[in-house]
Design brief:
Length: 152
């Protein structure tokens, strides 16, 4: 999730493309795949262990990054969509629609985490804001989990 996603939904976001043209779109249309924090996550985690898989659709919740050998699944949770306690801002319009949606997402996150753990995976969930604010802390968390899983 980009920092754009921390603004209220319903706001129009204007962004300048590299060629100078301006993109304007509704917050609701912004998807989480391939965003800057997500690419950053991959870059950070690639240094930790091999092999690494991204967007693994065969596992519950399609984890953003998976270390199959260590059975570690990592999610990068966008602050708006997953209701980050630090920076989620309730949209000014369609409040009940959005709070229901965010609560549903949070429930799904918990369900997915539980399903993965039951299947023997270690799950690490990282907030997008923490990832951009303290990337080394985030990769440190993942590194410790991988190390724990590497012990015989
Ligand atoms: Zn956040």
């Amino acid at each position: 999730m980009s920092s754009e996603s921390q603004k209220a939904v319903g706001q129009r976001v204007r962004r300048r493309r590299r060629d100078g043209s301006v993109v304007s779109r509704n917050m609701a249309a912004i998807r989480s795949r391939g965003t800057v924090p997500e690419l950053m996550l991959r870059r950070l985690l690639r240094a930790l262990a091999k092999p690494l898989r991204v967007n693994v659709r065969t596992l519950p919740g399609s984890p953003d990054v998976v270390f199959p050998r260590h059975h570690v699944a990592v999610f990068m949770d966008g602050c708006f969509w997953h209701g980050c306690p630090q920076c989620y801002v309730r949209p000014r319009i369609n409040r009940s629609y959005w709070s229901k949606k965010i609560i549903r997402n949070q429930k799904r996150d918990r369900r997915v985490t539980r399903a993965l753990r039951l299947a023997g995976w270690s799950v690490v969930r990282l907030w997008a804001c923490r990832l951009s604010g303290s990337p080394e802390l985030c990769s440190g968390r993942v590194r410790r989990v991988i190390q724990r899983r590497s012990k015989p």
